[in-house]
Specification:
Length: 395
């Protein structure tokens, strides 16, 4: 890898592919049916049940975990590069997260109750001190985070919120989101946020912080600058083989012994399974990217990864319009398999549009706005003629 390259193509590809998993699972489990509720459907016919089982076992949770890890990697990259140019790099990174929090708040309250940007911004702020901490401290806190999450579920205040997601909430959410006006949906979403989301975050945050700390550790390992090393590739083979094998076995067991749509108690084993599986996926992709033929094939995901922020928000704008009452009102009327298929097709469309956009512009539109607000001045958006090759925009 050329050390002068400002973007790391491998990260863009992995982020882009992770977004495919996020999109398909969001469509199947959060856009087509109310997110904060246990829906009683049986996923229709055999195809729906098979796709739902496969999604639960091999994608659901794993794509989000990989995305969280990459967010931690991104924090490290930004801080390292900003430190070389700015005397107050930490302050700049904190401002970047505050801007993300503003975007996430607008996304959560005005558009969709399944937002992850708010939590990423807030958890990212908790992760900032660990960018300067010793490696053993980061490891210790990461382990503590993964262990703490399952035990927090026993806290009565949190357990009450989790249990309240079951009785009657699905039917009410289906009615409001599927047939209500924008104002009715907005009020109901605020009710969900106050009574459910805030408390449920208490369960999710430790694990997400742990994932981000793992990302910080991965960046510190220098793996992205040593991908050609035989020793590094041997380690990646072990992580890929072990992670996918162990993750598959544990995920199949958990998926088989729990209802597809259940959000019942998540054990420590479940959380670790998602982490191990995500690391296995990431290592496997890095190995494939080391081969010219596979690199050429997988590189189509890079533009989506470079514009992940824009693509994520665009998915919300499109699919809330499709499923909510102020749009087409298709909520609860689509099967699991059809939703996944639509997600794949929409992902392909976003890949084409992202590639075309990046031929002319250095950033996606929301990435540009995020960057401009971070630095407090408008950043150049149109790509200069001499910088037309992919991968030259600063992360």
């Amino acid at each position: 890898m050329n050390p002068q390259r400002l973007r790391i193509d491998e990260i863009d590809v992995i982020r882009g592919l992770a977004l495919l998993g996020v999109l398909t699972m969001n469509l199947a489990e959060a856009f087509r049916v109310p997110y904060w509720g246990i829906h009683p459907e049986s996923h229709g016919g055999a195809l729906d049940r098979a796709v739902a089982f496969a999604g639960t076992a091999f994608v659901s949770g794993k794509a989000f975990t990989l995305f969280s890890i990459l967010f931690g990697v991104g924090l490290s990259i930004f801080f390292e590069r900003a430190s070389a140019r700015h005397p107050h790099a930490m302050r700049l990174l904190a401002r970047r997260l505050v801007v993300l929090l503003a975007f996430g708040s607008a996304h959560m309250f005005l558009l969709w109750h399944g937002d992850i940007l708010m939590s990423y911004a807030l958890i990212g702020m908790l992760a900032l001190p660990f960018l300067r901490a010793r490696t053993r401290v980061v490891i210790g806190v990461a382990v503590a985070c993964f262990v703490a999450g399952p035990f927090l579920r026993a806290w009565p205040w949190l357990r009450e919120a989790l249990n309240s997601r079951i009785p009657g909430h699905y039917e009410e959410a289906l009615r409001v989101y599927g047939t209500g006006s924008y104002g009715e949906i907005l009020r109901f979403r605020m009710h969900e946020f106050v009574h459910l989301v805030v408390r449920v975050y208490g369960h999710v945050w430790p694990r997400e912080l742990g994932n981000m700390l793992v990302g910080i550790l991965i960046w510190r390992s220098g793996v992205f600058s040593k991908l050609a090393s035989v020793a590094i590739r041997r380690v990646l083979w072990r992580i890929a083989g072990g992670g996918i094998a162990v993750g598959s076995a544990a995920s199949l067991y958990l998926a088989w012994h729990a209802p597809i749509s259940s959000v019942g108690p998540r054990t420590l084993v479940h959380g670790i399974t998602m982490l191990v599986f995500a690391l296995g996926y990431g290592a496997a992709l890095l190995l494939l990217l080391g081969h010219a033929r596979w690199r050429e094939r997988l590189s189509h995901a890079a533009p989506i990864g470079r514009m992940a922020f824009t693509n994520y928000l665009t998915q919300t704008m499109v699919f809330t319009t499709v499923f909510y009452g102020y749009g087409l009102g298709w909520l609860g009327q689509m099967g699991y398999a059809i939703a996944v298929a639509i997600g794949v097709l929409f992902y392909v469309l976003q890949g084409v549009l992202s590639a075309v956009w990046l031929r002319h512009f250095a950033f996606g539109p929301f990435e540009w706005a995020w960057r401009s607000l971070t630095y407090g001045e408008w950043q150049p958006l149109r790509r200069a003629r001499r910088a037309c090759t992919p991968g030259t925009a600063l992360t």
